Amino acid sequence: MPITIGLISDTHGLLRASAMHALEGVELILHAGDVGSRDILIELRALAPVQAVFGNVDDQHMPELEAHRWVSLDGWQIHVSHGHEVGRPGPELLIPRYPDADIHVFGHTHRALVHREAGKLVVNPGAAGPRRFDVVPSVARLTLAPGQADVEIVTLD
User: Fold this and answer.
1) Radius of gyration of the chain (CA)
2) Would you say residue 58 has pLDDT above 90?
3) pLDDT given for residue 78 in this prediction
4) For residue 26, what are the contacts with CB-CB under 8 A and spacing of at least 6?
């Protein structure tokens, strides 16, 4: 039976109703940092359990946030970090930095990305919070089954 995970990042204290709607029905939510407020995590927990990491603008002493998360689901090893620890995060830096991960989830750049390389999946769900730069806000839905990982980027209004 497939497992659906909600991926969200860079909320910066704003949780849109459209983000909540896009994440309905997921079994777990992974927040890739720049949460902005504990209230965001409380609201997301109304949908599903949440595991979150801190970003470069978060209070690193908020007990719900860790620097990195490792999640094992359905035979997949998922690594979650904000990505700022590698500078300008992307597949070329994250895959070698965390070689044991099958799936890398990160934020920081505010740009949605789905990249597959050598059996690895790298996902940035985009920024779900206040609109910045020329980026359309988004989240992602990751569906896992044995041997298969599918990602859908969901744009928000």
Assistant:
1) 14
2) yes
3) 98
4) 4, 5, 6, 47, 48, 141
